[in-house]
Amino acid sequence: MAKAPKTTFRCAECGWTTLKWVGRCGECQAWGTVDEVGAPSTEVIAPSRVSSPALPITEIDVEAAHAAPTGLDELDRVLGGGVVPGGVMLLAGEPGVGKSTLLLEVAALAADSGPVLYVTGEESTGQVRLRAERLGALSSKLFLAAETSVSAVVSHVDAVAPRLLIVDSVQTMVSPEVAGVPGGVTQVREVTGALIRLAKERGIATVLVGHVTKDGSIAGPRLLEHLVDVVLQFEGDRHSQLRMLRAVKNRYGPTDEIGCFELSDSGIIGLPDPSGLFLTRRNEPVPGTCVTVTLEGRRPLIAEVQALVSASNLPAPRRATSGLDTGRVNMVMAVLERRAGVRIATADVFSSTVGGVRLGEPAVDLALALATAGSVKDVALPRGLIAIGEVGLAGDVRAVSGVQRRLMEAQRLGFTQAIVPRNSEEPVEGIETIGVEDLAEGIRLALPARRRS
């Protein structure tokens, strides 16, 4: 008798295979991602009817693939011009960050050009209507539906024929074709595949809302990010009104642009010039503060770094950070102590940013070091001074990218002096650049010798 073909199981995350089912992948250690795929088949695939004939690339019509503006300039900046018919976008973010509010604003603006279908699986239509009234996002061409079945979504699409479809969220949808709980790997994969096929066949721009895990990554199989055309990450501190939208993946535009928004009770507003949010307005300079210019994608943003150094009675002094990378802050503190002679080993050091912005790039190192040194010496940096540069373990100040773009943004906002790495003193009219080779030289040039009176 012929032997029955062996059944194999494969991990949806990394592709690891095994001959028996296990709850946890033996390769990537993910739980609940191993599914049965059946025995390998050696049958020849028979040809079938094609949906459209293959054409030379020079004869392909590109008019239908042009992006259409959404009406929200900051979102269009990130997308590269707007939404593309048939394109599928995945918007992910932490709970309460404002994903539904942003999409409701987009839906109301897009409804001016044609019907929009907003499908919610987490709220009732009445709840969405109340929020739309509060935001002023009402339109006769904006259709709402509360569904959790992807088959029902297809029926609504047939009835409305929308130009934009929003599904909030993909983890609440289920497909009757497969087994599994909502939000499970199998259901998320099947629902996403069905919505992508619907979008491509009918040329509907589609936005899917995705949940995130505790570490901030998108929940569900990694395949989800590969299937969609655009992956957007909506970020922000729930205690701050600032929100940032960045493209993690974009088949239709750049991935180094960010959009800035302000979330308030009256809705979400795009911020074309958000630099003022990250500065403290004061009459006199204060020790322990330094202004820098960070690049978020291709966008320069002025930000302020603050440090407070105080005597400690603890055997292990505290190091607290807010808005900065803790590991990088500790490294800069060690370089200050060892290479620049700033004594902070027995002191508590608290460092933060202004306005809730997160600064993670190395170009902030020099500003953090100068703010900390100024707090130790109780000396304020001169008014109108900014600092840009990466600090190495040897105490050297290294060059960073986009120095001229950063300096032009600083000059536009009224800053007159900039401390930058040596050989990066690119001339910008209206701002004096001072090149430094190491951290000790930067502290000596930036901080006056006399103490504040």
TrEMBL record:
Region: Lon-protease-like, residue numbers: 348-453
Residue sites binding ATP per the record: G93, E94, P95, G96, V97, G98, K99, S100
Motif extent (RadA KNRFG motif): 249-253
Domain of life: Bacteria
A matching Pfam family: ChlI
Keyword hit for Zinc: yes
GO biological process assignments: recombinational repair
GO cellular component labels: cytosol
RecA family profile domain segment(s): 64-212
Keywords on record: ATP-binding, DNA damage, DNA repair, DNA-binding, Hydrolase, Metal-binding, Nucleotide-binding, Stress response, Zinc, Zinc-finger
Coiled coil ranges: none
A molecular function GO annotation: ATP binding
Primary role: DNA-dependent ATPase involved in processing of recombination intermediates, plays a role in repairing DNA breaks. Stimulates the branch migration of RecA-mediated strand transfer reactions, allowing the 3' invading strand to extend heteroduplex DNA faster. Binds ssDNA in the presence of ADP but not other nucleotides, has ATPase activity that is stimulated by ssDNA and various branched DNA structures, but inhibited by SSB. Does not have RecA's homology-searching function.
Domain notes: The middle region has homology to RecA with ATPase motifs including the RadA KNRFG motif, while the C-terminus is homologous to Lon protease.
Family: Belongs to the RecA family. RadA subfamily.
Protein name stated in the entry: DNA repair protein RadA
Organism name: Nocardiopsis gilva YIM 90087
